[in-house]
Write a structure and sequence with these properties.
CATH architecture of the largest domain in chain B: 3-Layer(aba) Sandwich
Number of helices of chain B: 15
Oligomer: heterodimer
Low-confidence stretches of chain A: none
Structural class of chain B: alpha+beta
Subcellular location (chain B): Periplasm
CATH class of the largest domain in chain A: Mainly Alpha
Shape of chain A: globular
Helix content of chain B: 25-40%
CATH topology of the largest domain in chain A: MetI-like fold
Family (chain B): Belongs to the bacterial solute-binding protein 5 family.
Distance between the termini of chain B: 27 Å
Order of helices and strands of chain A: HHHHHHHHHHHH
Number of strands of chain B: 23
Pfam families (chain B): SBP_bac_5
Strand content of chain B: 15-25%
Shape of chain B: globular
Number of domains of chain B: 2
Mean pLDDT of chain B: 92
CATH superfamily of the largest domain in chain B: Periplasmic binding protein-like II
Largest sheet of chain A: none
InterPro entries (chain B): Peptide/Ni-bd (IPR030678), SBP_5 (IPR039424), SBP_5_dom (IPR000914)
Low-confidence stretches of chain B: 9-25
Keywords (chain B): Signal
Mean pLDDT of chain A: 88
Structural class of chain A: mainly alpha
Chain lengths: ~325, ~525
């Protein structure tokens, strides 16, 4: 097991190297010039050139890539072209809101979707099943920003129950923190609730038709015990896989949700950096996201051993 | 109805009662602002971003500043005196000026700041050949020694477009092309660097050592009295969220509300929606004069014949005529040089005549590439109106939608459209920036050194120099008319009218005044 974990961690190194090369090259080739953004409309071409030189953007591709890679190897993600702040500081400032949003969304999605999927499978073909599936279709179909605006209108503007924007750090208290996260998490969670509920239902239907479930019923096991102890554990592998895959989608969804609810997270940092062509920030954030994605996949793979003793690494 | 404070906050009070009470008391002393953009840089010399300039108005002070009529008044300066031969201009600083780090402001700081700013300000660069030296005489006095009289020097020093802000000498000695790392000034508010989270918020605290002028506030002149303990900018990129935050009282001031949302906000009894900025924003359609078909002035003029500024302004600012205006000349309407000499072509407003003029001009169906910035709603709207117009007059149009970052790189290309070039781009400019030929960017016609599009016209350049050297306002106005006439012949750009950008604030704000830039002194909260 430990050898497997170490092998997987080592395997992230070439993955991260390829991501780094790809991101750097893509940004190098993409149109846009931060020096022109900084200089503004009144600047002469000479001014723009001098700013470009002062930022080191006039150096050849290989020199820039080499310098950046060397910095990364030393743990330095670079400095933002615009704010002059270290990229690591900017990420540090933004990571808490995004992590909070993702964690609350995942908890919300899992706690709602799994029971929904289990009940839908149990009551297959009934009104309950059809309602759950209708909700799932709705969750897939309505874009996150539309859900966000509707929630903001109802619960913030009309009812004044929750704030419409912003983020309060958890250090300021659990309730103020949660107050700002409820609407964004519900907006972002809709699609994951739908996704996880559907997968849970499908996986449970397969398991519920197995012989050992029939045996459990014949022995007089209670229905909740059959569903949540015997069946769900055996249906868990595809569910956990889809939660892991959903993590990537959560990163994309967070960008939109953070904009709608003005949450100062990594998603907005990325969008702002892309629009301004703040290369060090874009590169730093994408590297971080890639690493997080690789890590989540590793955790998902490891979690399989908990649900299925036949799986051994 | 259950209110928010009755749901979660009630629980929270039990947990954190002291902080809630503190926050309620602090709300009266805190001004919460949604700025027009994210504050990414603190250096108003390094970048020309308006949001950086607005930050600079809080942190730094000016030697002199513009009042609501556009006159230049003393600010840090107690006054100034011009020698009889007009070859020396001496300034004396007010007493009691201190930087946020506690150091006294001296004339050495001012001289270093002027020198750094002069290297980047286009206005000052025009005047620079006439300036022999700027030098500190003692702690409170400094002077400009001149080769020849420079009547526009005060205008340059007190301008709002690219203001000359005073920094400590140790900061101002930074190269003008390198970004400063500290925002330490002597202005009415201190920048709290440790609370700055670019993209989320920026915070200022009242500068207790600030000594405002005794005159009442008047534009950017007069007493810059801070009446609030703390100003907090929160970056909200989504306009609908900003509008909701204003309506709910989560924010106090929104600098640039989207025009589409103004009617909704005006319906709220808690909000004031008014024009606070003194200048309108002007729309510009710029031709690439180096490449076909717009290297032919007759084709540029043919397009101008089809333009109706009302269509453009309605697309940008809506159908309420109070929100925009027509200005069919190159200088800002309502300012001393505004005129419409030779502007008849812009009053044609006729697609059929434009189509005929296009044929007469020899248009041969060359491809026209128009780049529209999808992430700038106003400029995008201007671009789309032009795109429609070009198609209606029969031009072979390719409309390219790009983000602003891509657009500003592509507009620097002088290549033909087949090799990544462009034919027409749009932008906006503040009314301030179009009031005088000396800094009127779009009027310049000095070829490769002109703004993108690179028009080359010796007559415009001659008239511009003549205006800078003119001796009297009357002579200046005559030259301005000649300039407008010539600009209409060259037609390097088409003026598209102007729109007003209102601001919105909570009704409990006091002391909000009209000004050429968004500033927060004199504003209190009841």
């Amino acid at each position: 097991m430990w050898a497997y974990i170490i092998r997987r961690i080592l395997a992230t190194i070439p993955v991260m190297a390829i991501v780094a090369l790809f991101v750097f090259s893509l940004l190098y080739l993409s149109p846009g010039d931060p020096a022109a953004v900084i200089a503004g409309d009144q600047a002469t071409p000479d001014d723009v050139e001098r700013i470009r030189a002062s930022l080191g953007l006039d150096r050849p591709y290989l020199v820039r890539f080499g310098a950046w890679t060397w910095d990364i190897l030393r743990g330095d993600l670079g400095t933002s072209i615009f704010t002059n702040l270290p990229v690591s500081t900017m990420i540090q400032q933004r990571i808490e809101p995004t992590l909070s949003l993702m964690i609350v969304t995942l908890i919300l999605a899992v706690t709602i979707a799994i029971p929904m999927g289990v009940v839908a499978a149990w009551k297959q073909g009934t009104t309950i099943d059809r309602c759950v599936m209708a909700f799932a279709v709705l969750g897939f179909s309505v874009p996150v920003f539309v859900v966000g605006y509707v929630l903001a209108y109802v619960f913030a503007l009309e009812l004044d129950w929750l704030p419409v924007q912003g983020y309060t750090p958890i250090s300021n208290g659990f309730f103020p923190w949660m107050e700002n996260l409820i609407l964004p998490a519900v907006a972002l969670g809709g699609v994951y609730i739908a996704l996880i509920a559907r997968i849970t239902r499908a996986s449970m239907l397969e398991v519920l038709s197995q012989d050992y479930v029939r045996t459990a019923r014949a022995k007089g096991a209670a229905q909740p015990s059959i569903l949540f102890v015997h069946a769900l554990k055996n249906a868990a592998v595809p569910i956990v896989t889809i939660i892991g895959i959903g993590f990537a989608g959560l990163i994309g969804g967070a960008v939109v949700t953070e904009s709608v609810f003005a949450i100062p997270g990594l998603g907005r940092l990325t969008v702002d950096a892309i629009l301004r062509r703040d290369y060090p920030v874009i590169q730093g954030v994408i590297l971080l996201f890639s690493f997080a994605y690789v890590l989540v996949n590793l955790l998902v793979d490891l979690s399989y051993t908990l649900f299925d003793p036949r799986i051994r690494y | 109805m259950i209110q928010r404070r009755g749901v979660l906050a009630a629980t929270a009070v039990g947990v954190a009662a002291p902080s809630v009470v503190g926050a309620q008391g602090g709300a009266q002393r805190l001004l919460r602002v949604i700025p027009q953009a994210n504050l990414t840089s603190l250096d108003p010399v390094w970048t020309t971003a308006v949001v950086t300039r607005n930050n600079a108005f809080m942190v730094f002070d000016q030697i002199c500043a513009q009042d609501s009529k556009g006159e230049i008044r003393p600010q840090m300066a107690e006054g100034w005196s011009l020698a009889d031969d007009r070859l020396s201009l001496t300034f004396t600083l007010r007493e009691g000026l201190v930087f946020h780090d506690g150091q006294k402001v001296t004339s050495r700081d001012v001289v270093a700041s002027i020198k750094r700013w002069s290297r980047r300000d286009p206005f000052m660069q025009v005047l620079q050949p006439s300036v022999a030296e700027v030098e500190a005489m003692d702690d409170r006095r400094f002077r400009f020694r001149l080769h020849r009289p420079v009547p526009l020097l005060l205008q340059a020093l007190g301008q709002t477009q690219f203001p000359c802000f005073v920094m400590p000498e140790r900061i101002a000695s930074t190269d003008a092309f390198t970004q400063i790392r500290e925002a330490v000034g002597s202005g009415p508010f201190r920048f709290l660097a440790n609370e700055w989270n670019p993209g989320q918020r920026a915070v200022w605290a009242k500068h207790d050592g600030y000594v405002p002028r005794q005159e009442p506030v008047d534009g950017l002149a007069g007493g810059r009295t801070p009446r609030i303990e703390r100003v907090e900018w929160t970056i909200i990129t989504d306009p609908a969220t900003s509008a909701n935050a204003m309506t709910l009282g989560e924010q106090d001031y929104w600098e640039y509300p989207l025009h589409d949302l103004l009617p909704v906000m005006r319906r709220s009894r808690d909000l004031v929606v008014e024009q606070r900025l003194l200048d309108g924003t002007y729309g510009i359609a710029r031709f690439n004069t180096l490449q076909p078909p717009f290297n032919n002035p007759a084709i540029r003029r043919a397009v101008a014949m089809a333009v109706n500024q009302r269509d453009y302004m309605t697309a940008v600012a809506g159908s309420d005529p109070q929100g925009w205006g027509v200005c069919e000349g190159v200088f800002t309407c309502g300012t001393p040089l505004a005129n419409e000499a030779g502007s008849e072509i812009l009053k044609t407003h006729n697609v059929e005549r434009a189509r005929a003029a296009l044929r007469e001009a020899g248009y041969n169906n060359e491809k026209v590439v128009l780049i529209a910035p999808s992430d700038y709603p106003q400029i995008n709207a201007l671009s789309l109106v032009t795109a429609d117009l070009l198609q209606r007059i029969g031009m072979n149009l390719e409309l390219v939608s790009a983000d602003w970052g891509t657009l500003i790189q592509r507009r620097a290309s002088k290549e033909p459209v087949e090799r990544g070039g462009w034919s027409i781009v749009h932008t906006t400019a503040s009314g301030q920036s179009l009031t005088m030929p000396v800094f009127h960017l779009f009027l310049r016609a000095n070829g490769a050194n002109a703004w993108f599009g690179w028009p080359d016209d010796a007559e415009i350049e001659r008239l511009r120099t003549a205006w800078v050297n003119s001796d009297s306002p009357e002579e200046g106005r005559t030259i301005a008319e000649q300039l407008n006439r010539r600009a209409m012949e060259v037609m390097a750009y088409i003026p598209l009218g102007y729109y007003w950008q209102p601001s919105a604030w909570r009704r409990n704000l006091t002391g909000v005044f009209r000004t050429p830039a968004t500033v927060f002194w004199n504003i209190g909260k009841s």
